[in-house]
Write a structure and sequence with these properties.
Blueprint: H1 23-36, E1 49-54, H2 58-61, H3 73-86, E2 93-99, E3 112-113, E4 125-126, H4 128-132, E5 137-138, H5 141-146, H6 150-167, E6 172-173, H7 190-203, E7 210-212, H8 242-249, E8 253-258, H9 264-279, E9 287-290, E10 298-299, E11 303-304, H10 306-318, E12 322-324, H11 336-339
Parallel strand pairs: 1-2, 1-8, 2-7, 8-9, 9-12
Antiparallel strand pairs: 3-5, 4-6, 10-11
Length: 340
């Protein structure tokens, strides 16, 4: 495995900017770079390296612009871009996930109203008691918007918060509108989009985009599984993304980066871990969590999920996963030399 210098086309220090990526120019520079450094097409890789990037989108990663900005995410993106350019000859395929929402979803303000018909403000936590007491109820307009009977939606709301409580995770959080389909906030940060495109053309490896989060009746922090998969009568409302789990776990190395460490990142890894423990616990050694390419949700004066994120990482390490830094050569990551 070999690291390369940053290509001349790499702009650097543009992780906080929104700009148009010139795909034609990237294709030409990446193709020339591959020829100059004798970079082989990805299908010829003997050691298959996947990079799973969780929700590297404008709304999470660009300060003073993103509607749900994760503190220091732009620094994570910068380190990830540099990692990709250095390891363009080593990375077989990149899989970015895309949080994808519309306005009337169960975790957005428009879904709920109080007795005065007012929507909850972002970062309101809705508990079982809040719903059963009528403090918060489903906005009747959602029945029309989703073509679902209102009585069912109200029953689903009660069922949903109870299921969240049983899971032992967080109460239902009403998030600011974010990653709205068709918005700029939904797009991948341009600097990273360019780096992934460069890899695409240098390795003849099409980027593996994975969409998540569009079901109005459930949250979908993890790319592999919605938070709740059933309705109030036990009917299925969604299902695990088993196909994508199988795709990623077949790689020899799965390096993971992205946002946020406390939520979508952590819960994606938690679902991988559950899958691995059921199939073969030894597979945990394939997972490499790049701790310098992810940050927890912190909203000053409101909420700080740093401790939750750190505890999750401690648990992942105790189960055999590897905590690494993107700045270290892949060859120096635990066990990688033995794979060659």
């Amino acid at each position: 495995m070999r690291e390369l210098p940053k290509p001349p086309s790499y702009l650097g220090d543009v992780e906080e900017e929104i700009y148009k990526v010139d795909a034609g120019s990237v294709a030409r520079s990446a193709t020339a770079w591959a020829k100059q450094h004798n970079i082989k097409p990805a299908p010829s890789d003997k050691l298959k390296v996947a990079v799973l990037v969780i929700d590297p989108q404008v709304d999470f990663c660009i300060p003073n612009y993103g509607s749900l900005y994760v503190q220091d995410a732009e620094k994570d993106i910068k380190r990830l871009c540099e990692f990709i350019y250095r390891n363009v000859a080593n990375i077989t395929k990149i899989f970015p996930t895309l949080d994808t929402h519309t306005t009337g979803q169960i975790f957005h303000p428009q879904f709920w109203v109080d007795e005065q018909g007012q929507h909850p403000v972002p970062m309101t936590f809705i508990t079982v008691e809040d719903v059963t007491s009528g403090k918060w109820k489903v906005n009747q307009a959602m029945a029309w918007n989703h073509n679902i009977p209102y009585a069912y939606l109200q029953n689903h709301a009660v069922h949903y918060v109870k299921e969240l409580e049983k899971s032992g995770r967080y109460s239902l959080c009403i998030w600011p509108m974010h990653c709205r389909l068709s918005s700029i906030g939904h797009a991948i940060v341009p600097a990273l989009d360019e780096a992934m495109l460069f890899h695409n053309f240098a390795r003849n490896s099409c980027t593996g985009y994975e969409i998540k989060g569009g079901n109005p009746l459930t949250e979908n922090y993890s790319v592999f599984c919605p938070e709740v998969t059933t309705g109030p009568g036990g009917n299925s409302i969604d299902q695990k993304n088993v196909g994508f789990i199988d795709t990623t776990i077949n790689y020899d190395i799965i390096a993971v980066a992205g946002e946020a460490k406390s939520h979508c990142f952590a819960w994606t890894i938690d679902d991988i871990l559950k899958y691995i423990k059921a199939k073969d616990p030894e597979l945990a050694k394939k997972i490499f969590l790049m701790e310098d390419c992810t940050s927890p949700v912190i909203i000053p004066g409101v909420v700080d999920f740093t401790d939750d994120a750190n505890k999750a990482f401690e648990r992942f390490a105790s189960e055999g996963m590897n905590i690494v830094k993107s700045t270290d050569p892949i060859m120096d990551w635990p066990g990688v030399a033995d794979m060659i």
